[in-house]
Automatic annotation (TrEMBL):
Assigned EC number: 2.7.1.148
GHMP kinase C-terminal domain sequence ranges: 197-273
Pathway where it operates: Isoprenoid biosynthesis; isopentenyl diphosphate biosynthesis via DXP pathway; isopentenyl diphosphate from 1-deoxy-D-xylulose 5-phosphate: step 3/6
Active site per the UniProt annotation: 9, 135
Protein name: 4-diphosphocytidyl-2-C-methyl-D-erythritol kinase
Organism: Salinibacillus kushneri
Function description: Catalyzes the phosphorylation of the position 2 hydroxy group of 4-diphosphocytidyl-2C-methyl-D-erythritol.
InterPro entries linked to this entry: GHMP_kinase_C_dom (IPR013750), GHMP_kinase_C_sf (IPR036554), GHMP_kinase_N_dom (IPR006204), IspE (IPR004424), Ribosomal_Su5_D2-typ_SF (IPR020568), Ribsml_uS5_D2-typ_fold_subgr (IPR014721)
Catalytic reaction equation(s): 4-CDP-2-C-methyl-D-erythritol + ATP = 4-CDP-2-C-methyl-D-erythritol 2-phosphate + ADP + H(+)
Domain of life: Bacteria
One Pfam family hit: GHMP_kinases_N
Positions annotated to bind ATP: 93-103
Domain GHMP kinase N-terminal, residue spans: 65-143
Length: 282
């Protein structure tokens, strides 16, 4: 049996440059993984099938699961007639802007590479991942990276400065597609990505906080005022800055003090079920 960890990601920046002919949006975003994980267990089966097991509601147990799609891709590409059972122990909230499904798919790609001795490079795994979803390539690498194209072109970056990250997910569902559809030209090209890259390279925490920016945030907040309210609460309880991750609805706040992270956690816990204190993974 192979066991893989699938970490969540947050977007430190997310800019949209323009809408493309193929319907996707050209993006420029800095993502980093945090220590909130799903666990993936992969067991080989003699029968030519893919079984998905997850005890969590809202997680599909068939071809709609991104982990299933990852296994199918590997099997098809290498004509593998053995099967797999994939058990997903979910910690990452679903449809949250934290790339839980994409990270599960990336973990399956890494796991099957090992199980079936395929000797695929990270680049090859990322290329296969990009065919499953825009965020999967990043999840293959993890760490901190600049993602461009529709999100699948990855350039690794150094670790951001040490800090605590408090995540809070309002209990609403967001469709990534709908948020991208509501985006207008006014929202686009509004992020100083280069300054954030420099702040990360300099490990300069105040500038990292100052440069947190996501053009999808205003769109999601317009349709879901709960997200705006939660951001206000997190700022009020002492985070140095707060931003929505991806298309939302999860927001995250940064602080360098553990005691302050605990204070933020405690003050949000009363009205939000999904609150986590985590660290960036690098
Ligand atoms: C917004 C982001 C930011 O990291 O993440 P999440 O909020 O999903 O975590 C990503 O761009 C989401 O990536 P992912 O969720 O993998 O997207 P996909 O499955 O490829 O696409 C879902 C839908 O989003 C829209 N989409 C996605 C990526 C992109 N660059 N342009 C788009 O317009 C398309 O309408 C697409 O049909
Ligand atoms: N392994 C998986 N884990 C969670 N959701 C999944 C998975 N595979 C497919 N999905 C579907 O993808 C949707 C988005 O899930 P997720 O990846 O958690 O969110 P996001 O794209 O916002 O980061 C869910 O609504 C769910 O139906």
């Amino acid at each position: 049996m192979i066991v893989e960890k699938a970490p969540a990601k947050i977007n430190l920046t997310l800019d949209v440059l323009h809408k493309r002919e193929d319907g996707y949006h050209e993006v420029e975003m800095i993502m980093t993984t945090v220590d909130l994980f799903d666990q993936i267990q992969i067991t080989e089966l003699e029968e030519n099938t893919i079984l998905i097991q997850s005890e969590k509601r809202f997680v599909p147990d068939d071809y709609r699961n991104l982990a299933y799609q990852a296994a199918e891709k590997v099997k098809d590409k290498f004509n593998i007639t053995k099967g797999v059972q994939i058990s997903i122990y979910k910690q990452i909230p679903v449809a949250a802007g934290l790339a839980g499904g994409s990270s599960d798919a990336a973990a399956v790609l890494r796991g099957l590479n090992q199980l079936w001795d395929l000797h695929l490079s990270q680049e090859q795994l990322a290329e296969m991942g990009a065919e499953i979803g825009s965020d999967v390539a990043f999840c293959v690498y993890g760490g901190t990276a600049l993602a461009t194209g529709r999100g699948e072109k990855i350039k690794p970056l150094p670790s951001p400065p040490n800090c605590w990250v408090v995540l809070a997910k309002p209990s609403i569902g967001i469709s990534t597609r709908t948020i991208y559809e509501k985006l207008t030209a006014d929202h686009m090209n509004n992020v100083n990505t280069n300054d954030m890259i420099q702040a990360i390279k300099d490990r300069h925490y105040p500038t990292v906080c100052q440069r947190l920016a996501n053009v999808l945030e205003a769109v999601t907040m317009d349709t879901h005022p709960e997200v705006k309210w939660m951001k206000y609460q997190m700022l009020k309880s002492g985070a140095d800055n707060v931003l929505m991750s991806g298309s939302g609805p999860t927001i995250f706040g940064l602080t360098q003090k553990e005691s302050r992270a605990e204070r933020i956690y405690n003050s949000l816990r009363g009205f939000c079920e999904d609150v986590y204190v985590v660290r960036m993974l690098g």
